[in-house]
Amino acid sequence: TPAELNDISRCVELTINHNYPLAIAVFSDKLEDKQHSLTTADAALAHFQIATVIASRMQDREDFEQLDSCEFHIERCERLTDSLLIEMEDPDLRFIRAGCSLYRSYLAKRQSQWWRMYLQGIDGVNRLEELAEDYPDYREVDLGLGNYHYWKSSLLQHFAWFPFVRDNRAQGIAQLERAA
Asked: What does pTM read for this prediction?
């Protein structure tokens, strides 16, 4: 909805400007406001956005003391989206659910949990690829897969001599441009 997009844009802008408490408040206030009941989908989005802000803050400051909080919000988002996806088909919820797996992969990497990082990353990418098959015009998929292809190739460029390691940075950039 336009209101959700407005909230997401505001949250992103505040995060880019390193105003993390206000960025989190955009969605935490909604979760805490008992007078206005949120739909389950709105609550899932709120938890996802809060997790993304916390992850950005941790990355920017290289301080992972809020890791438990980030994982809490990812877990809540996963539970809510999984329950909704049993009942209905929604590309936005599927995209958010894929994002949860990819954020879990990122957090596992930061903790040197390589196998968990791999499994969560593959889960997230598989979810995005399935979403792209089902909804070829859903541009957010290009954003997710573009980031994945670019950064995976960038991180593995020193291993490009292995036959199974491909340089997909150009593909990632093209996907990001399509998403823009």
From this structure: 0.85
User: What was the pLDDT predicted at 53?
Assistant: 93
Q: In whole angstroms, give the CA distance from residue 74 to residue 52.
A: 9
Q: Which residues contact 86 (CB under 8 A, 6 or more apart)?
A: none
Residue from 42, 31, 51, 55 nearest 3 by CA: 42
Q: What DSSP designation does 114 have? A: H
Q: In this structure, is the dihedral angle defined by the CA atoms of residues 68, 111, 118 and 18, taken in order, positive or negative?
A: positive
The count of C-alpha atoms lying within 13 angstroms of the C-alpha of 171, restricted to the half-sphere facing its C-beta, is 11
Kindly state the tokens that stand for 98.
């894929």
Q: Reduced to 3 DSSP states, what percent helix, strand and coil does the chain have, rounded to the nearest 5? A: 80, 0, 20
Assigned token pair, 88: 């209905």
* Spatial CA neighbour of 98 closest among 74, 64, 116: 74
The Cα 175–Cα 180 span in angstroms is: 9
Predicted confidence (pLDDT) per residue in 105-164, tens digit: 989 988 899 899 889 999 999 999 999 999 999 988 998 888 888 877 777 777 777 877
